[in-house]
Amino acid sequence: MAIIPQLELFSWEDIEPLGDLERLRLVLEHLPDEALMAHLEKSRGHGRDDYPVRAMWNSMLAGIVFQHPSIESLRRELSRNGQLRSICGLRAVPSAAAYTRFLRSLMEHGSWIESMFDELVKTLSEELPDFGRRLAMDSKAIASWASRPSKEKKEDGRRDLDAAYGVKTYRGTREDGSTWEKVVRWFGYKLHLVVDAQHELPVAYTVTKGSRSDVKEGHVLLDEMEKRHPEMLKKAEVLTADRGYDDSKLLSRCWDEYGIKPVIDTRRMWKDGEPTRLLPGHTNVVYDEGGAVYCYCPETGARQQMSNGGFEKDRGTLKKVCPAKAYGITCQGREQCPVAGGVRVALAVDRRIFTPIARESYKWAKEYRYRTAVERVNSRLDVSFGFERHTIRGLAKMRLRCGLALCVMLAMALGRVREKQQERMRSLVRSVS
Asked: How many domains does the chain have?
């Protein structure tokens, strides 16, 4: 094992301002880990202190920043990189057994990692006035290091007895109007995320088996935010998500309980290919599953889509304007049309389809584009935090690893904000070439 005789000779001024060590500096200086370190040191008591708690913790954070897929990879880096050992406070490279014991201790203190994440979210909310105003929700598939369920069900620390098969289906429409579908299957876990869509940073997360429903966990995420960050739910204005979260209860809850406008795509669930339904209380007004409202001319029977007239919050209704009035088109039956003055569509007609922001409006399409913020956060977790090539087995380890990665992501961003480098807030770690 390599020895560093004079750790005090290291200076942060010697590192490259845009290098990996500078990113590690941001994490070490801005991660609120003092309470966790004090608790771990107290738990250790008066036992052997060959590898100090703080030094082990710093090296674990370095492994995340430098994208090491395994503890052995990190140990090799520490063995060859004396400067990194000095930064971490290590005089010798810890043994694999030492890291195993330390990881086990961290898993036993998972709630402390969650508290650290919550503190970072709260601090960023104070530093960035618009943080949390636009939210986006999605899940991320994370394959287990194990490729399939183990036939041996006895826990031995090596097998993955927690993972489950997961399936996600992606659908879309090409420019020529044709549709496409992509089915992704994996054996492992799901990371469920709520992120700030403006700054592309996480604000809430859970980790489950791969078989867990997105909609069910969506409610859990809201429960967690209500418990941990009620002030953010009060601040939030819009929540975007893909059609995997299309659920009338979730949509209703966003608006009724929190005043958050849900912008969630719809699945096509009407049976027998039913294209439209009659709007209650009207004889010549129908709506489709995409939220568009149409009126029929009493004279010719021609159908036209009605224009959006905005949302009336006090009434809980969407205003729809006569197309002849809105667009100036000719309608032979306008004089006798019962909806020539427009209609009000109550959200209660169908909470899954009618939302405070009309689905077919330009504003809805504009807000829905913010959903891709979650995809970019997921991409950074894969590319910049090593989830594409990890060696993790077990739900407890996966929760710990996800929690640490998200804390590192937030700590880097907080460091950028505090050091007046907000334009580089998303420059988290350098991609491996």
From this structure: 3
